[in-house]
Design brief:
With 201 residues, this protein is α+β, with helices and mostly antiparallel strands. The protein has one domain (34-193): GAF domain (Beta-Lactamase, 2-Layer Sandwich). Helices cover 41% and strands 19% of the residues. It has helices at residues 20-31, 37-52, 89-97, 114-120, 155-173, 182-200, and strands at residues 54-63, 68-71, 82-85, 101-103, 127-133, 139-148. The protein has a six-stranded antiparallel beta sheet with strand order 3-2-1-6-5-4, sandwiched between helices. A hairpin with a 5-residue loop joins strand 5 (127-133) and strand 6.
Length: 201
């Protein structure tokens, strides 16, 4: 039997624990057929959800003009953008601290912003949040996974998710979505160049 081409497997069926090369191929393949930032982010998060067994997730990009984090609810077909102050919630905390967080009981955490649940209709039970950091040490956004399907998120999954976000940013850099401000695209370039060089060596 010939080997399975995992890049062609529907994202919901991508096997757990793909290698970094396989993740890059899967994400790049999905992004090659997307046309909007919403679709691109949804493709990255869909693979992350499968790998880490989470119900949903998002990439938050910082808008340096408005000082807001903006994201698309990836579970919706709508390209409606939700914006929150970049100081708000767990995402805002991780954005400013630069430190990843695992939250097992968000509603008991005073930093949690319930507004997002109200807008999306989601009930958040657990959170895994990691920063998007440029090669220059600048935080350009955060990535979140919400609601581990079984149990709680682990430190190992935190590291895995952070690596997947790096790979996703590398793939995302090559797609020019008009929704991304030029400042964000430039910072994505600084973020992924070291990873690209390491993959080429």
């Amino acid at each position: 039997m010939p080997p399975i081409d995992k890049s062609q497997v529907p994202v919901e069926q991508v096997p757990y624990a793909l290698s970094e090369a396989e993740l890059l191929l899967a994400i790049s393949t999905r992004l090659s057929i997307t046309h909007t930032l919403h679709e691109g982010v949804s493709a990255i998060i869909a693979i992350a959800k499968t790998e880490i067994d989470a119900e949903m997730g998002s990439l938050f990009f910082n808008d340096p003009v408005t000082r807001e984090l903006f994201f698309f609810p990836t579970e919706s077909d709508s390209s409606h953008v939700i914006r929150i102050p970049n100081t708000s919630g767990i995402a805002g905390h991780v954005f400013h601290s630069g430190k990843p967080e695992i939250i097992d009981d968000p509603y008991a955490d005073p930093r949690f912003n319930r507004q997002v649940d109200a807008e999306t209709g989601v009930i958040t039970r657990t959170i895994l949040c990691v920063p998007l950091t440029s090669a220059r040490g600048e935080i350009i956004g955060v990535a979140e996974l919400i609601n581990k399907r079984s149990g709680t998120f682990t430190e190992a999954e935190m590291g895995r998710f952070a690596k997947m976000v790096m790979i996703g940013a590398l793939a995302l850099k090559g797609v020019h979505f008009p929704e991304l401000r030029s400042e964000v695209r430039a910072k994505l370039a600084h973020f992924v160049e070291p990873l690209k060089r390491s993959n080429e060596t």
